[in-house]
Structures are given as C-alpha cells and as structure tokens.
Design a protein that fits this description.
Radius of gyration: 22 Å
Number of helices: 17
Mean pLDDT: 83
Number of strands: 5
Number of domains: 3
Structural class: alpha/beta
CATH superfamily of the largest domain: P-loop containing nucleotide triphosphate hydrolases
Strand content: 5-15%
Length: 377
C-alpha cells in the first residue's frame, strides 16, 4: 500500500501561496475554490476545513492537529463538518466510514449497457435529499460552539434543484457557517452562486515542480515500480495535474478491473491507439471497446489528442503526447484544417453535457466517425 501517500494530507507546494493569503480572522461565509481537475484542490479544501474547525487559539498555527476539534475531524466524526460529495468521491474524505449505497437492482435480462452507464452517472450527482438535509441541519446550533463547515465537491455536479437550495443558504448564511465550494469548471457554476462567494483560483504547478512533488510522493513506496520516464509521460497525458497522475499510478498498481478509474485508463489507451490510425480508425469497434469507461475521461483524452494535432499542424510541439510526435506529424499531413476545427468544436460542445445521463456509446460513435472524416478528402 501507500502509507505515506494515503494517510497524510498535505498542501501541495504550488498551493501554499494561496494558503498563506487566507485570513482566518476574517474568513468569508463562502469561498469557491476553482482550477484544473487533479491539482490538489480537494486535499487543500480538506485541510482548510480542518483549520476552520480547529479549536487552537493560535490562528497562525491552524490546524494544530492536537486539539479535540482536529482529532474529531481526523477520525471523520466532527459534528460540525458536513461533506456533500457524490458516491464516487466519498473515498476521498479523511478516515471516512461511509458505505456505498447499493445501486438499484434490475433484472439482468432488462439491464443493457446504456442503463448501466446512466446508473453510474447518477452516482456522480449529489441528490436533492442530501442537500436539503445538510441545509436543514444548519438550523441547529453548532455542536462545539465554533464554526460549522459545509464542503461541496464538485460544485458543477449539483443538480439544478440542489443548486437552488444551496443558493438560498448563501443569500442568508447562518451564523458561523462557512461554505467551502470546489469546482473544476467554474464556468459551469451558476452565476448567482459565484457572485455570493469569494473566488479562489488554484494554480497548476509548473512542470518541474509537479514532477518533483510526484517523485517525492512515490519515493517512500517500495511496491510501486515506475520509471521517471513513465511518470513524465503520464504527467503530460494528464495535462500537468500531479494528483491525477498519482491517482492513476495507484489505480494501475492495485489493478482493480472493476475500478472506474482503472477502466477509464485502459479505455483511454485503446482510444489513443485508434485515433493514431487517422482515416483508418475503426470507430464502431473502438466505441464497442471503450463505451463502458467514464465518458468525461474519454472526452478529455480526445481533446488533448486533437489539441496536440492542431499544434503540430501549425508547426508547434505537442503538449500532452510529445512521445507521439512522429504519429502526430504524419496525421497533420492529411488532416483537413477546417474539419479539424469543426471536430474540436464538437468536442467542446460534448464536454458541456458530459455529465448528463446520455447514451455514451452513441455519442462516442458519432464523435469518432466525425474524427475519421477529418482525414478524408
């Protein structure tokens, strides 16, 4: 296992300037932390929640990790901390005792691939019942007489009814209640919610800092056998998101074939191999092989590949897949620029509805078929 990685939450070095800029003496009722997925926002928010619930009188030393408040928090049992996260993200909470809710059982004869996909997508939403329950609990006074903290992640995954319930509380926040909201895509957050929060931008680290942090996290593990070259390759493929890379390496090590991330990583490899074929891509066969993976993960892979292809077509260097420069150069010779731009717009449009319970397989077939046409005269 990864004791140094999984049991200790620390603020990433590239997020420390953001931490030092916080004024715990005059902290706002609501902050919205936004930035690229996989750069450590959630770990930052967990540490922030602990600091706000810390009972130490030394503000500069929060969280102290010694007071009763910190001990309660570390065991996942602080009575004044509420985390609204979907089922797929509960494992990220500190020392959580949550149990996954069993999905609704259906007859194996009537359940098809698309219904399974929809079921998985529903797990990623925060239900209106959970939101209302958390908001209603705010009417009760603080259990320990200090702050109460509500953490919501990812904010853009809130259903519209849940978002409206949250908005009412942000308009008239209860005394000593602090909302920590996180979003990977702040543009998908309701403007009315954004306007009632202090926006905190979480930066992405430069490549050398991110890679150094990754290698330091892996250096204490004798079980993970990964070369520096592999780390750098995955780092680039994940868009320079160190926490996403670390999660990928852990998933690859555990080799849990039913884990959603493991499935998505394997499907992404198949997708890249297929897209490298250009006009020869068998989009039907590819869709059949990868459609059970996380749709948003596959869309991100497609976007990164097409972004590199556009860069190479304009004489630039690939950002995400530098080791595939030869293949990208070859594809750029036959790619129709106008069609490539049209395909990029289709991907952007698809990202806007990636979390909706759509038939992923049909969407993938349409996109990959359009990709093939990019290389046809």
């Amino acid at each position: 296992m990864f004791p140094a990685i999984e049991q200790e939450i620390k603020i990433a070095p590239w997020l420390k300037p953001l931490w030092t800029s916080l004024d715990f003496d005059r902290f706002p009722n609501a902050v919205l932390i936004h930035g690229q997925s996989g750069i450590g926002k959630f770990a930052f928010a967990i540490e922030l929640a602990k600091a706000l619930l810390c009972e130490s009188t030394n503000l500069a030393g929060r969280p102290c990790n010694e007071c009763d408040g910190c001990h309660w928090f570390n065991t996942g049992n602080h009575p004044d901390f509420t985390a609204l996260v979907p089922e797929t993200h509960r494992k990220l909470l500190p020392q959580t005792d949550y149990e996954s809710v069993e999905p609704t059982k259906k007859s194996r004869n009537t359940k098809d691939d698309d219904s399974e996909s929809s079921e998985r997508k529903e797990k990623k939403n925060i239900s209106i019942e959970e939101t209302r329950g958390a908001i209603e609990s705010l009417a009760i006074g603080s259990h320990r007489g200090g702050n109460r903290v509500i953490l919501i992640y990812p904010l853009e995954m809130l259903r519209s009814d849940s978002a409206n319930t949250l908005l009412k509380s942000l308009e008239e926040p209860p005394n000593k209640t602090i909302f920590i909201l996180l979003a990977d895509r702040v543009d998908r957050v309701l403007p009315t919610i954004r306007s009632r929060c202090r926006l905190l931008t979480a930066p992405r680290p430069d490549r050398s800092t991110g890679l150094a942090w990754l290698k330091s996290q892996l250096s204490g593990s004798s079980e993970v056998k990964v070369t520096d070259s592999d780390i750098e390759t995955i780092y680039d493929e994940q868009g320079g998101a160190p926490h996403a890379v670390l999660e990928s390496l852990i998933a690859r090590h555990h080799k849990d074939e039913k884990d959603e991330l493991t499935i998505s990583i394997a499907a992404s490899r198949i997708l890249l191999q297929s897209m490298a074929q250009g006009a020869q891509i068998n989009w039907l066969e590819t869709s059949e092989k990868i459609h059970k993976a996380q749709y948003s993960y596959l869309l991100a892979t497609m976007q990164r590949w097409v972004s590199d292809l556009q860069l190479v077509s304009m004489g630039g260097k690939p950002r995400y897949y530098p080791k595939h420069i030869g293949t990208l150069n070859g594809l750029s010779q036959t790619a129709q620029v106008i069609k490539l731009l049209q395909f990029w717009k289709s991907l952007v449009q698809a990202r806007r509805s990636e979390n909706h319970p759509l038939a992923a397989r049909i969407q993938l077939e349409a996109l990959l078929s359009q990709y093939q046409q990019v290389f046809e005269v």
